[in-house]
């Protein structure tokens, strides 16, 4: 058994049975091993950003890591932006990067790069395999590290000779690392703050946004008047009719500060202290009042669900019934607005859909406007590295066949990783892509206005995606995805309804 | 004057007047400054790999650096692969990466990443600006560092507050750093080796591949029977009718070893010791015999043209007349082969064309088969990080308006940075893109065969770009580039001839 075979067998034994790949020469022995050993689903991406973003989306829905297969330092580099997003989402990913043979690397062949150095900032664990005999054990350790709460990217650099050398040994799966429980002190301190009657914000993130944890959070809020909120961007939120809704901190620092005025305490549940996305001259980078006191109920790596349950019990808080949500919404008609799209989504979103949203500017009404849609999971760009939406949708669809994935995708960010469409077509993934085509970097036009200058031609040209207009129907067709264009809400509703009923992907270019 | 304005004015004063950009929020003050200060041509790319590859192509043809404008660590990450290629090409690039405000960075907002750490492996110079008062001086230093022989990537990380703070000061251009001349000892040692009569290889790279330097290299070869050769991949080679041709080291290690058998001495002129692209079990990673002796006439940072001239003089070598190259070739007819494409290129290539080649497998006959084409420059992928061809073509076309750029682009690598087509359309660049559509990763099929296994379905699926077929005509149209498909050499010749006569880009999908 060569090293590559021991690696594949160890991954399978450790429960990793899906590999998003864009291989190169140095990975050919790994590819050959995948051929000989059944059980690994291999999904090809035509660009590494697709591969890493899909691995992120897969694990967010599968609750276990996929493997990637990338080619040398530059292949890793192409996948770094979406690994950055995965890092911010605390997503488990077993990130395998093929590389030069151990004895070839010092010769500095053209592809040689600082593979480990590039991987380290996005990884909770980084190792370069050195021998066929130990690469199985390396793989088992990588899976364990990736799965360790709250989850992270474990990068295994894989020199080609480690793959082709004989003497590979399959390693037994390593046990999951224990998830630390919060201390009784932290629970009691949070309870004291909540009982004080002072305006208190509870910031929920990560595993606190799953259905059971949210139910306990609502017990706490109902018993104490605490205000529940989530960060602007979250890996996965359970929401929709019959579930309890939580608002997000607004993207704009000014809106956030207005929204959080008067808050005296901030209790963190798996979240970092809130911070604005960017700094602006003369504005505070914190969205909460400067004199608010930060308390930590649970750190991201602790058992967040258990922490909320214990706090709710400590407070003697009874269960809360979610509201029925009223009659089912009608589809919107007429002009395309953010609110109209949210209304139609509420009317037509399939049960248990997975919504992937990458549309900060036009999409402002989508999240608040869809609380009464059918139950669904909502996935977002977590690290601000745009170009994550289409890959996330790809990976999510691989993870949960039978559930419709709806990608709400701005055109500017969609162009970063449009190659995802080809993988959707090839794998016949049940994804409805809605491209929100405003043909500009709308968010940056707002930011430029904030700079105070009267923007001139040079600046406007740099934020304009028209000249020429992108034709998303042709782009989709060029990669084997059927597509159509809508310019009013009636035709959008027709297309959206029929898209969600078909097998395989469909793209709607919604001109806004 | 704010920091951003002082930066733009300093760049212009230092001769940097072109900026390839994909800006974000943290760059808005820089964008606003570009508006207020005339003279900088801004070229927008819809993905950072387009931006950095275009900056590489621009400088290879303009012989001076362009600036980039990237957005934070993840934006840099998306551009790293083509900066890796630029590093291997020794291309001067002033790589500007906007980033979080100095006081915002410690708060670890979602986009915060290890910007400097990611930049360093591809950069000859890396600095994070800290004050508006000194960012002008930082920019002047960056230009000087990028231009320092043999050229490299100088990365300036630009926190947003450094841009918006008042007190910016324009810095005077710094002088070019002196280019070291080779020592008389090195020249005499090389002359001794060449006079010894032993089979000797002279490896030419970088500036040794410009027209005047090549003429001196041919004097040396004619006077001594030395064998001239270049690395497999080169930043820019002057070639075509009336110029002296130099062969390349073959890509395949086996072919290279056969070709270089019997060599006793290797003289390096701006080149590293030759090494195979990848290692293979049981094969030497060196393409030359193990007992060959390596000599260095000139290191990459030395004056290569002057070194060759002095060596030719030392040898008393007379001038060599290039051969006339015979009658102009006829276009090829019938089936599409690598040799047929080379023949048609030889017949139809416009005078002073810039050829950008990224087609290692099908393109094997292109380079040897076009030595008698009209005089042209030939640009290649230098670092093996695929997805450089279309961006290089974009940047080259910006650098030398009036010269036709011909991009010979494999389909698999073309998909990495297909967003380049939009920039070509927007800037109406005179580029003829020939996509060589074999609908597979052909080079990897060869590598997989080399692994010895009988490839099965899993492996073949991972190297197959069919299912679904990419439709490059639709992809091009979707980004505003006119396009057509050719499946035989007659229609290819018709399309190629007319494409080269039009203003602006045209894409030919050549089904092979």
TrEMBL record, chains A, B:
PANTHER family: ACETOLACTATE SYNTHASE LARGE SUBUNIT ILVX-RELATED, THIAMINE PYROPHOSPHATE ENZYMES
UniProt keyword Manganese present: no
Positions of the Thiamine pyrophosphate enzyme N-terminal TPP-binding domain: 1-106
UniProt keyword list: Thiamine pyrophosphate
Source taxon at top rank: Bacteria
Source organism per UniProt: Cupriavidus malaysiensis
Residue stretches making up the Thiamine pyrophosphate enzyme TPP-binding domain: 375-509
InterPro entries: THDP-binding (IPR029061), Thiamin_PyroP_enz_TPP-bd_dom (IPR012001), TPP_enz (IPR045229), TPP_enzyme_TPP-bd (IPR011766)
Pfam families hit by this protein: TPP_enzyme_C, TPP_enzyme_N
SUPFAM superfamilies, sorted: Thiamin diphosphate-binding fold (THDP-binding) (SSF52518)
Similarity-based family: Belongs to the TPP enzyme family.
Protein name: Acetolactate synthase large subunit
């Amino acid at each position: 058994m060569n090293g590559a075979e021991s690696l594949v067998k160890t991954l399978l034994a450790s429960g990793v049975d899906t590999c998003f790949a864009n291989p190169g020469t140095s990975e050919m022995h790994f590819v050959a091993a995948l051929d000989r050993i059944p059980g690994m689903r291999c999904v090809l991406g035509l660009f590494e950003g697709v591969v890493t973003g899909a691995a992120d989306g897969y694990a967010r829905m599968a609750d276990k890591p996929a493997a990637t297969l990338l080619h040398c330092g530059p292949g890793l580099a192409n996948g770094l932006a979406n690994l950055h997003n995965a890092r911010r989402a605390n997503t488990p990913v077993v990130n395998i990067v093929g590389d030069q043979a151990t004895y070839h690397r010092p010769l500095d062949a053209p592809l040689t790069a600082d593979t480990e150095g590039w991987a380290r900032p996005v990884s909770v664990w980084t190792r370069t395999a050195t021998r066929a005999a130990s690469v199985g054990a390396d793989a088992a350790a990588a899976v364990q590290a990736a799965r360790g709460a709250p989850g992270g990217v474990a990068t295994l650099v894989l020199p080609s000779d480690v793959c082709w050398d004989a003497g590979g040994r399959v390693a037994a799966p390593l046990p999951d690392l224990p998830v630390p429980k919060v201390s009784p002190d932290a629970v009691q301190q949070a309870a004291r703050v909540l009982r004080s009657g002072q305006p208190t914000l509870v910031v929920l993130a990560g595993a606190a946004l799953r259905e059971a944890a949210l139910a306990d959070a609502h017990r706490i809020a109902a018993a104490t008047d605490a205000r529940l909120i989530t960060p602007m961007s979250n890996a996965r939120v359970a929401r929709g009719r019959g579930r309890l809704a939580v608002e997000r901190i607004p993207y704009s620092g000014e809106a956030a500060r207005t929204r959080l005025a008067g808050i005296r305490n901030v209790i963190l549940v798996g979240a970092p202290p809130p911070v604005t996305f960017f700094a602006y001259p003369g504005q505070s980078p914190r969205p909460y009042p400067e004199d608010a006191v930060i308390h930590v109920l649970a750190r991201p790596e602790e058992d967040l669900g258990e922490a909320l349950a214990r706090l709710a019990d400590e407070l003697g808080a009874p269960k809360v019934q979610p509201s029925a949500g009223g009659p089912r919404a009608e589809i919107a008609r007429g002009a395309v607005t953010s609110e109209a799209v949210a209304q139609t989504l509420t009317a037509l979103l399939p049960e248990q859909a997975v919504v992937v949203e990458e549309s900060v500017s036009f999409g402002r009404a989508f999240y608040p406007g869809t609380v009464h849609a059918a139950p669904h999971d909502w996935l977002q760009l977590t690290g601000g590295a745009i170009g994550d939406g289409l890959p996330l949708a790809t990976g999510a669809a691989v993870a949960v066949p039978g559930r419709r994935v709806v990608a709400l995708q701005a055109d500017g960010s969609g162009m970063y990783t449009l190659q995802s469409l080809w993988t959707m077509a090839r794998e016949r993934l049940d994804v409805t892509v809605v491209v929100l085509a405003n043909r500009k970097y709308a968010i940056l036009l707002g930011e430029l206005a904030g700079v105070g200058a009267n923007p001139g031609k040079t600046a406007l040209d740099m934020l304009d995606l028209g000249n020429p207009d992108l034709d998303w129907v042709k782009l989709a067709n060029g990669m084997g995805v059927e597509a159509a264009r809508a310019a009013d809400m009636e035709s959008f509703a027709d297309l959206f309804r029929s898209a969600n009923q078909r097998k395989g992907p469909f793209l709607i270019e919604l001109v806004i």
